[in-house]
Design a protein that fits this description.
About 85% of the residues lie in helices and about 0% in strands. It has about 210 residues and is mainly alpha-helical. The chain has a domain of about 110 residues: Substrate Binding Domain Of Dnak, Chain:A, Domain 2, CATH 1.20.1270. The longest helix is centred in the middle third of the chain and has 38 residues. The N and C termini lie far apart (about 150 Å).
């Protein structure tokens, strides 16, 4: 009997150990604690690529740079468009050779009026001689430009007119100086008349013939 009881006690002990082991496995499964595989999953999470610090700023700088470039291009295009408009306006109303030369003649005449007045007859004669040479030189320049601009028929007509005008100018200067014949003012009047008539001829040729 004692042996039977001892045998039954051993069997009961073994049975209880199996029950306890089974309960332990069940508790581990239900607790949801990570097993060996969970460490692998954590490693996978840790190896996820993270955007480095400052990269967002770099993207913003690139974006701002692109925006600034676009604004700069817009300004350049605006300036070019403005320049194009100015160029068109100039083409619509270009200053002709006639306008340019009339301005020049006006400046020359203004210089004559503002010239210092001389106090002796000799100095006045010299001043008028210089004025005559200045206007005569300008008349020759105008005449040369007209030779390039005018058609042959027009230029031939102008040559004939110019010959007659030179003769008339000299005669007019001579007649005007005779008012002071024998006096100190005779030479002064002659040269002054030559200068004034030559100046008038410059204006006439530019206004009548120049483009």
């Amino acid at each position: 009997m004692k042996n039977n009881k001892r045998f039954l006690a051993v069997l009961l002990s073994i049975a209880m150990s199996g029950v306890l082991a089974a309960c332990g496995n069940s508790s581990e499964e239900s607790s949801g604690e990570p097993t060996g595989n969970s460490s692998v999953q954590e490693e996978d999470i840790d190896t996820t690529e993270i955007e480095p610090e400052g990269s967002q700023g770099m993207e913003e700088e690139k974006s701002n740079g692109s925006s600034n470039t676009a604004q700069s291009n817009d300004k350049d295009n605006s300036v070019e468009a403005s320049n194009d408009v100015d160029a068109v306006d100039e083409n619509k109303n270009p200053e002709s050779n006639k306008d340019t030369y009339l301005k020049k003649l006006n400046q020359m005449e203004e210089a004559d009026r503002n010239a210092e007045a001389k106090t002796t007859t000799a100095k006045m004669v010299k001043q008028e001689e210089e004025r005559y040479r200045t206007w005569d030189d300008e008349l020759n320049k105008i005449y040369g430009l007209l030779e390039e601009q005018l058609e042959n028929d027009q230029m031939n007509q102008l040559r004939e007119e110019q010959r007659k005008w030179i003769q008339q100018r000299d005669e007019a200067a001579k007649d005007s100086s005779l008012k002071y014949k024998g006096g100190s003012m005779e030479q002064l009047e002659y040269v002054a008349t030559l200068a004034s008539l030559t100046r008038e001829r410059c204006y006439l040729l530019v206004a009548k013939y120049m483009n």
